[in-house]
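Design request, tokens follow.
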């Protein structure tokens, strides 16, 4: 009985050693591909958000004050936010004559 157990244990150990290298290889490359995919998604999301935020027209508006206490004299609650993208009261800041 003990010899049979030892023989089975030895066979399982040899099978495990034969499968260990391919499993580690596949796992390592799977992890690298997963990290690359997540990095790609993060960059894509960042570009999407950045593009959306660059559509905010407040900095070029006549009513934008630049003061952190009152950013906009017409819509202070939506100034510099995504809700300001389609602002109906937006007027281009007149060019300065300096």
């Amino acid at each position: 009985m003990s010899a049979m157990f030892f023989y089975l244990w030895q066979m399982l150990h040899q099978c495990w050693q034969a499968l260990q290298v391919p499993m580690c290889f596949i796992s390592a490359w799977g992890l690298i591909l997963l990290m690359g995919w997540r990095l790609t998604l993060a960059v894509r999301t960042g570009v999407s958000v950045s593009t959306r935020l660059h559509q905010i027209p407040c900095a070029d508006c006549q009513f934008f004050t630049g003061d952190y206490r009152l950013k906009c004299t017409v819509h202070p609650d939506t100034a510099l936010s995504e809700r300001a993208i389609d602002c109906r009261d937006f007027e281009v800041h007149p060019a300065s004559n300096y």
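Comment from the thread starter after seeing the answer: thanks! The radius of gyration is 31 Å.
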